[in-house]
Write a structure and sequence with these properties.
By secondary structure, this protein is of the alpha+beta class. The chain has 2 domains: 4-37, no CATH class; 42-133, Arc Repressor Mutant, subunit A. The chain has 6 helices and 5 strands, in the order ββαααβααββα. It has helices at 28-37, 41-54, 57-66, 73-80, 84-96, 116-133; strands at residues 4-7, 24-27, 71-72, 100-105, 108-113. The strands form 2 sheets. Strands 3-5-4 form a 3-stranded antiparallel β-sheet. A two-stranded antiparallel ribbon has the order 1-2. Helix 4 packs across helix 5 (84-96). The longest helix is centred in the C-terminal third of the chain and has 18 residues, at 116-133.
Length: 134
């Protein structure tokens, strides 16, 4: 049986959100199980940094475009509606965060996503928004 701790103090009078608990009951087994699967703070910090870099709509669009194939800086600029300099700046931010990588071919730099995880993350985000709008 799950150990619980409870406090039966009534909810504050100004608590009008039906999604809030009206009493405090802590299921210690559930808390221990949740704590066991939560990654260490350093990993969570890196995850938060990825979400932060993707929080910019321009960068999210660049990442989504790169999820469908490698692009040179000029192509990224055209897709994103940016100057080449601005696109290069955004790509550097994505590169510094480990989201994208590049290869040189002569004088051209071609960018791609570093791994499929980022591609799935952005594609899932797009699918989530599209599903909620349907």
């Amino acid at each position: 049986m799950a150990q619980t701790s409870s406090s039966t103090s009534p909810a504050p009078a100004n608590a009008t959100d039906p999604a809030l608990c009206e009493v405090t009951i802590i299921n210690f087994e559930a808390v221990q199980a949740a704590r066991a699967v939560v990654p260490p703070p350093g990993v969570l910090q890196e995850v938060a940094a990825i979400f932060q870099i993707l929080a910019d709509p321009v960068r999210a669009g660049i990442v989504y475009a790169l999820a469908h194939g490698e692009l040179c800086v000029c192509d990224v600029a055209a897709v994103a509606g940016l100057s080449i300099s601005a696109a290069s700046h955004q790509l550097k931010r994505l590169r510094d965060q480990g989201v994208v990588g590049y290869r040189k071919e002569g004088r051209l730099a071609f960018y791609s996503l570093r791994d499929a995880h980022i591609r799935r993350l952005v594609e899932d985000g797009i699918a989530h928004v599209q599903a909620s709008q349907a």
